[in-house]
Amino acid sequence: MYFSIANLFFFAILLETAFSTEIPVFHAETRTPSTICDGVLYNSAATEACRSLAWFYVFKRQTLGTDYPHIYKNFEKFEFSPDVQPPWYMFPMVENGFWELGMDPGPVRCVIGMGGFLAGSIYHKKDSNKFEKCQDVLE
């Protein structure tokens, strides 16, 4: 193999550029926040339990029973993290542990997107079928 001075010079510049240029990396929030929904605090463990179980079933393309997780269409036009892309799925969130089949799903849902990243949390206001957005709180 023949290398000219010009080729070696070009290769050296290419290597220097490759190691000095920042590579764009996807940075979704890695800390799971606590969230306040209708005045009730759901700690980060509850939020993470909801997110991880929702992703488990979405990834396997299964549901727990017949209802969850299911597609969330965001009719309310909530703004979620721009790092988390649709399709979005919703899953019941409980204060302690994991939601299980047979339990009342309650009013609170976590919403996940592509890759199982948490988009946010929402809840049904009392006596309403409409959703409100929960307030995330990083601990």
From TrEMBL:
Gene3D superfamilies given in the database record: Microbial ribonucleases (3.10.450.30)
GO MF annotations, alphabetized: hydrolase activity; ribonuclease T1 activity; RNA binding
UniProt signal peptide: 1-20
UniProt keywords, alphabetically: Disulfide bond, Endonuclease, Hydrolase, Lyase, Nuclease, Signal
Catalysed reactions, as listed in the record: [RNA] containing guanosine + H2O = an [RNA fragment]-3'-guanosine-3'-phosphate + a 5'-hydroxy-ribonucleotide-3'-[RNA fragment]
InterPro entries: N1-like (IPR000026), Ribonuclease/ribotoxin (IPR016191)
Domain of life (superkingdom): Eukaryota
Catalytic activity, EC: 4.6.1.24
PANTHER family per the UniProt record, alphabetical: EXTRACELLULAR GUANYL-SPECIFIC RIBONUCLEASE RNTA (AFU_ORTHOLOGUE AFUA_4G03230)
Similarity comment: Belongs to the ribonuclease N1/T1 family.
Name used for this protein in its record: ribonuclease T1
Protein species of origin: Diplocarpon rosae
